[in-house]
Design goal:
Elements lengths: L2 H27 L2 H8 L3 H7 L3 H23 L4 H11 L2 H14 L3 H22 L6 H17 L6 H12 L8
Helix pairs in contact: 1-2, 1-4, 1-6, 4-5, 4-6, 4-7, 6-7, 8-9
Length: about 180
């Protein structure tokens, strides 16, 4: 393995470990010492890749975005309901929870907020690209995204798939055109 491959592997390990810590311990419990120990790297290796916790979290945001974008693009959905399901899957689960930890922390941390915005905009563009054929107006699209975020957030404390499906059902089928 070349030095570059070793550096890339260590960087990827640190990012994956950071996401795992965010999922398991939340933002407050995600410390650089915990990440370093869990990844099994030296303090020097961690600092070589990321000068600060802020740098590491900014890169973790990008990593989360890449995973979510990969999930959305990998499905190549054909129908409206498949497209909504692909976005729903990307906007739930552990990676969504890790991102949510960073969203909440960004509310009071301007540096983290600035780091979060580019990745979130990229995800937003990808989601719009996937859903635009089915949700042509901004109001329709944003309504769906708010419902999906709400369902993902609610599922943390109360997971009721049948109720979530019923709430989402009106978004899965196009509305008939109004009578003339």
């Amino acid at each position: 393995m070349t030095r570059r491959e070793q550096r890339d592997r260590t960087r990827r390990l640190l990012l994956e470990t950071t996401v795992e810590c965010l999922i398991e311990h939340g933002y407050a419990g995600t410390t650089t010492q915990r990440i370093q120990q869990r990844a099994g790297v030296s303090r020097g290796a961690l600092l070589h890749h990321f000068r600060s916790k802020g740098d590491l979290l900014a890169a973790a945001i990008g990593h989360i975005a890449e995973v979510q974008l990969g999930q959305i693009r990998a499905t190549a959905p054909d129908t409206r309901s498949e497209r909504v399901a692909a976005v729903r899957a990307a906007m739930s689960g552990p990676f969504f929870q890790a991102g949510l930890e960073l969203w909440l922390a960004a509310r009071t941390d301007p540096e983290l907020r600035a780091a979060l915005l580019p990745s979130q905009r990229e995800i937003g563009r990808a989601v719009r690209d996937v859903l635009a054929p089915d949700f042509p107006t901004r109001t329709e699209l944003e309504s769906l995204l708010m419902v999906l975020r709400g369902l993902a957030l609610t599922s943390i404390l109360r997971d009721d798939p049948a109720l979530a499906d019923a709430i989402l059902a009106p978004h899965l089928h196009p509305h008939p055109p109004p009578p003339p």
